[in-house]
Each structure stands twice: as C-alpha cells, then as structure tokens.
Amino acid sequence: MKLTGVELRRISIPLVAPFRTSFGTQTTRDILLVRVTTDDAEGWGECVAMADPLYSSEYVDAAADVLRRFLVPAVMAAGPPTAHSVAGILAPFKGHRMAKAALEMAVLDAELRTEGRSFGRELGAVRDRVPCGVSVGIMDGVPELLDAVGGYLAEGYVRVKLKIEPGWDLEPVRAVRERYGDDLLLQVDANTAYTLADARQLARLDPFDLLLIEQPLDEEDVLGHVELARRIRTPICLDESIASARDAAAAIRLGACQVVNIKPGRVGGYLEARRIHDVCVAHGIPVWCGGMLETGLGRAANVALAAMPGFTLPGDTSASGRYYASDITEPFVLDDGHLEVPTGPGLGLVPVPDRLAEVTTATEWLTG
Ligand code: OSB
Ligand code: MG
Hints:
By secondary structure, the protein is of the alpha/beta class. Helices cover 36% and strands 21% of the residues. It folds into 2 domains: 3-116 and 349-366, Enolase-like, domain 1 (2-Layer Sandwich); 121-340, TIM Barrel, CATH 3.20.20.120.
C-alpha cells in the first residue's frame, strides 16, 4: 500500500452544552483529523488531543506540528507502510502518542478499506453492539445535575460517570444515588484532582457502591494509587497514568489499579490499545473504553474496540448527540442503551462532505 499524501484538517464543532471537568470547561471541540491517501483508497484518523494541555501534556497545535515536521515525513520516507509498522517507524520520536495514534488510525483505516475488513474484525470484536455509559460534567448545583442524569437515563444510558473534584464529590454522588437508586451503575472520574492527603474524604465515597473511581491522583503518582487502594474500598481505575501496555502491566503488578480505562489516543493507537486489553485480560482486570469527545470517526473505532471480550464494563461510548447536535459523519444513535458496531470496511463510515466542509477551519496537504 503506497501512501500518496497526508492531509491535516482542523475542524471546530460546538458542544451541545458546556462540559466541565476538574481541569476546565469546554464549549467547542477543536479537532485535528488526519486523512491518508493511497493508490486506491483513503483512510481517516482522529487526533484526540484537546486545545489546551490540561488533560495531558499533549495539545492539538503540538500534535499538528509534530505530525507535519516529524511523524508524517518519517512514515512517508519509510516506503509502503502497513498499520503494524507505523508504531515502530515512529518510535524514535518520544511521546506524542495522540498524534501517533491519529496517523496509525488513518493508515489502518486505509489498509482495512483496501482489504475489505472492518475495525471490529481486525481488533477481535466478539459483539455486534456495545452497552453505553455517559460521562456527566461538573454542574453549578445538584438540581441541575439530577436533571442532566435523569435526561441521560431516559435516553437509555446504562451507566453514569460523574466528574468530581474537591468540593464536588460526596454531595453529588449521594444525591444521584438517592434519586436514581442502588441499581444504577455509577462511577466517578477525578482527572487527577486529589492527593493522598484526601484519602479520608475519598473513603467517604465507599458506602455508595461505586463501580470505580477513575484517576484520583496525579498521572505520575502510581505509588500514591497503590497506597490509596489500601485506604478506600472503591476500586481504582487508571486513565491518565496508563500510556502503554507496559504501564498497564506495571500498575497492575504494583496494585495501583483494579480496573483500566483504555483510550486509544492516550496510548498511541488502537493496536497498543488491543495489547493493553490483552494484558488486562491475562491479569483478570476488567477494562472499558474511554472517550475524548470524538466525532463519528473516532467513535466508530472506539465502538469496535469496546466489542472485544475483555471490555466487560460499559464505556464512555456515548451517542453522537451527547456532544454534537450535528456530527461530521452519520450520527451514532443509542438503541436500547447500545451502539451498533460498524461492519463496513475500515471504520465503516466516512465524513459527510458538506458537513465536513462546514466545520473545517484549515487544511494542509503533506506529500513527504
Ligand atoms: O477523563 O475520561 C476522561 C473527556 C475529555 C478528557 C478526558 C475525559 C473525558 C471524559 C468524556 O470523561 C469521555 C467521552 O464521553 O468522550
Ligand atoms: Mg478519565
């Protein structure tokens, strides 16, 4: 498969409502798409880096820069790539996993489209639909939160994740439990907002039977999570701390987590994401698919990943409408709390041209 060029495309899409986490509030999503062309196909990749380096060190302008200056030239110089060769070609360049993931995703999509195989088939999907959770941002008050959660439950979401931070933890969790009952699958995500000094406060969440608490401490504080796990009963799930299958193996061995959130962008791509799945399955650690407010492109691949056997917890694979009134692809729509795994070649869908044109803010064509 010979690469003929790579397009970097920036799009800007408004969110249906502000999304507030412990690291900031987003109202629009500024996304970098990567499109590769080959002799007879094209492939799409989506970079999950956000506008600011607040979730992790990566941010979208840096991803575009490293792709333009280093990653795309290296892949184009290496001769006809296969998706499985991309990570090795890019290995000399440190970090920048979200940028690498987007390029690998685009090459994989092109390859699979050429071969007539779907992401689901390639990754080892064993289900044709996946159960979906929803990530609920920090709100101005508990009444607003209860309304938002009630709306998502009415739509059919099977699991609720509340974003928390110091000052917004016990009260919202208690209120949601009291209103929506003990059977609700409920979990929380702190995005690194706490320290070990907060262990006693976090232990107050124990009575609420949460599925897990996601990334309470700093991304580099793996040993802190080991210590915290001794002091709270809620299972700890790592997100930001896990950048590779090796990280996952180490965190599991140390006892830093009982669950892992797998986000392909964070770990350098869908192929590394699959390896993390395999490591976790081998250790009896449940995994679920995280999200980064993806368009239909990233969502399609995430849903395929979430259909692998070890994904035993509902993921943040929400419907397109959770974030976007109008997606760039045909929207993913919830059916009885589930999304269907696409079966067409590659991602199984492409952007709708008019819609893509409407939201595009810049394009750039790279040939080597
Ligand atoms: O920590 O999981 C996270 C969104 C942006 C950055 C980090 C996170 C999130 C979410 C939303 O929780 C996941 C989604 O619905 O796409
Ligand atoms: Mg998270």
